Amino acid sequence: MTAGDLWRPASGCGPDCLPPAADPAVPALRRAGRLVGVLGMLLLGVGLAGLLPVLPARERDAAVRGWARGTLRAFGIRLVVRGRLPRRRALLVANHVSWLDVLAVLAVAPARMLAKREVRAWPLVGQLAAAAGTVFVDRARPRDLPATVGRVAAALRAGHPVAVFPEGTTWCGEAADCRPGRGFRPAMFQAAVDAGAPVVPLRIGYRCAATGTATTAAAFLGDETLWDSVRRVLAARDLTLSVAVTAALHPAADADRRLLARAAESAVHLVPARRPAPSVPVGMLDLAA
Known about the structure:
Blueprint: H1 3-7, H2 28-51, H3 57-74, E1 78-82, E2 91-94, H4 100-108, E3 112-116, H5 125-131, E4 135-137, H6 145-157, E5 162-164, H7 189-195, E6 199-208, E7 213-214, H8 226-235, E8 239-245, H9 257-269
Parallel strand pairs: 1-8, 2-5, 2-6, 3-4, 3-5
Antiparallel strand pairs: 6-7, 6-8
Helix pairs in contact: 2-3, 2-5, 3-4, 6-7
């Protein structure tokens, strides 16, 4: 296995994980209306990106939260939040199903995100991400990971919440054999240990409100393009996004990041924590460590 493989975990998902094309969809006119609303929110986000650096912290957080919730509404998605985040800085860790997960986290807690470097170049979205203090990571340079951990720890010490998706890739969120191998990658948990910050696991789920059953309509899988995924979300009927805030984990100064990662994974997926392998020095961190 190469270093690049460690940086790019894969899920077991395939086309069969997505809902059938025959699933009930909203009328074409409503889809068009949603698209216009989403484009309007993206343009609003560009203007917001210019204002964020000069806004006081409280107003900045409220603006980002409001923008994220408004964008979800534009997509026709109902947001349901259970639990309450701690008032202090924290490392927020969540399962990863869709690009919508970023909006879900920002709608609950306007945290600084950890994102791949390519996001910085995305039209509109990249500008807003950079203005919001996103920490970008270059997956082509595994040796830079300790420095990235250091930047996340510095943000936590400065009082900023930081959000990461430690599975490293999206998956359908349903079939157990589709979960990315190795589970939660422990590297970024070291930042919480170093900064003395709590870890707050977030459980993200998507359901069809009409039936009350889980749906993979929002999942972003395999080789499909972002536009294919966006079109499916625009057409989805009665899509509900839930974010459950679980109990905070408070690592000790000498906590093992692997144990911390497994405990957080257990809280998110409601499975028994697995016993981790022996730890390695921080200087040897990689996404599989």
